[in-house]
Amino acid sequence: MNSVEFKNISKVYGKQTLLKETSFAVEAGTFTVIFGAPGCGKSVILRLLTGLEKPTSGEVFLRGENATSLSAGDRNIGYIPQSFALYPHYKVRDNIGYPLKLIGAPKSEIDDVVARTAELLRITRLLDKYPNQLSGGEKQRVAIARGIAKKTDIFIFDDPLTGLDFKLREQLFDDLRSMQETLKATFIYTTSDPLEALMLAEKIHVLDDGKVIEAGNIETVYHQPQHLRTALLLGFPKINTFDGTLEKDSKSIICKTKLFSFPVDLNQSEKSDNDQVVVAVRPQYLKLNEKPSGKSIFINANITLAEDLGGEMVIHMDADGVYLLGVERHDSFSQQEGAVEIGVANQNLMVFDAKTSRRIGQGAN
Ligand SMILES: Nc1ncnc2c1ncn2[C@@H]1O[C@H](COP(=O)(O)OP(=O)(O)OP(=O)(O)O)[C@@H](O)[C@H]1O
């Protein structure tokens, strides 16, 4: 069953068409991340969901029912906005309980819900403090607690952790995941941060140029993206790309790039007459001075910078004018400069149609 379904939704602001007849569904009880570049329309999607805005055309379904004309008050969605304001003159417990008080819930019920949500977010000890006595991360927890105090099965989070340092965000990732498992509700969370998406999502929807271009389980979408934009947006460091041309001989299809050539397995389902392609390979699959297993291609390059990120090193390289990124573990790679041989297993070379950006195949083993 789907909690939420967008059917052919468009949203136009003046001359800007932000959403272009996009359709997608969010399965009930999942932690779903809507991911896309800053400004691509993630917050607008959430506002269309809550009913704060209406689509220019198309329909929104909630819990299987057409909700397009339902007012925000009748949609029963818990909303945790990007920027929130706590009431400074209310204690934490009253801030959390405020939405329930507003709908006239009895005090005993409010007390129960406040105690339960405070426990979920590990802020019980803060309940009698005022907002100005809290750190930034604690305020964020209180705001999330206020959002999830609502009794409902759908919660939406509009990029609520921006501005927090990474350690704090990591703790809150764990809290959000375990909260979702406890509540068994649908969590829809937006972010433009690939690491946040990878750490939080069970399902992901990738929004680009007005449409959800790809959706599915996070592991599948990350490891086997079906769209070049997904491969470019979702990953850190940025994926390596090469322009290529497909050449067919009697036996096989060969992809030729400036630096290497390899045989390609074309997907049967993605027919393409175009021979111009983009080859993409994640930095993690570049093996430096190491032979990958299976059939592989090799590139000679020079290290231009070895960037130390603590446990990992991002290796910047140049191969005949082509810029390449690799990732190596700190404890197993010590070379800072000079020549390297890069090996990439053919199966890690993804091939996309240069015109449509759709995935059409991969390197043959
Ligand atoms: N009410 C509005 N009126 C006019 N234009 C709007 C309105 N709301 C949003 N927009 C336009 O839509 C674009 C996308 O906005 P939105 O806030 O949904 O992006 P986002 O993907 O959530 O970005 P971020 O990741 O930075 O939060 C904005 O750049 C703006 O141009």
SSE order and pairing:
Blueprint: E1 2-13, E2 16-27, E3 31-35, H1 42-50, E4 57-62, E5 65-66, E6 78-80, H2 92-102, H3 107-120, H4 136-148, E7 154-158, H5 166-183, E8 186-191, H6 194-200, E9 203-208, E10 211-217, H7 218-223, H8 228-233, E11 240-248, E12 253-257, E13 261-266, E14 276-281, E15 287-288, E16 296-308, E17 312-319, E18 322-329, E19 338-345, E20 350-353, E21 359-363
Parallel strand pairs: 3-8, 3-9, 6-7, 7-8
Antiparallel strand pairs: 1-2, 1-4, 4-5, 9-10, 11-12, 11-14, 12-13, 13-21, 14-20, 15-19, 16-17, 16-19, 17-18, 20-21
The structure holds adenosine-5'-triphosphate (ATP).
Can you characterise this structure?
It contains eight helices and 21 strands. It has 365 residues and is an alpha+beta fold. It folds into two domains: 2-224, P-loop containing nucleotide triphosphate hydrolases (Rossmann fold), CATH 3.40.50; 237-363, Nucleic acid-binding proteins (OB fold (Dihydrolipoamide Acetyltransferase, E2P), Beta Barrel). α2 (92-102) packs across α3 and α2 (92-102) packs parallel to α4. The radius of gyration is 24 Å and the shape is globular. The mean pLDDT is 91. Residues 13, 16, 18, 36, 38-44, 159, 192 line the site of adenosine-5'-triphosphate. Adenosine-5'-triphosphate binds at residues 13, 16, 18, 36, 38-44, 159, 192. This is ABC transporter domain-containing protein.
Keywords:
365 residues, alpha+beta, Rossmann fold, OB fold (Dihydrolipoamide Acetyltransferase, E2P), 6-stranded mixed sheet, 6-stranded antiparallel beta barrel, 21 strands, 23% helix, binds adenosine-5'-triphosphate
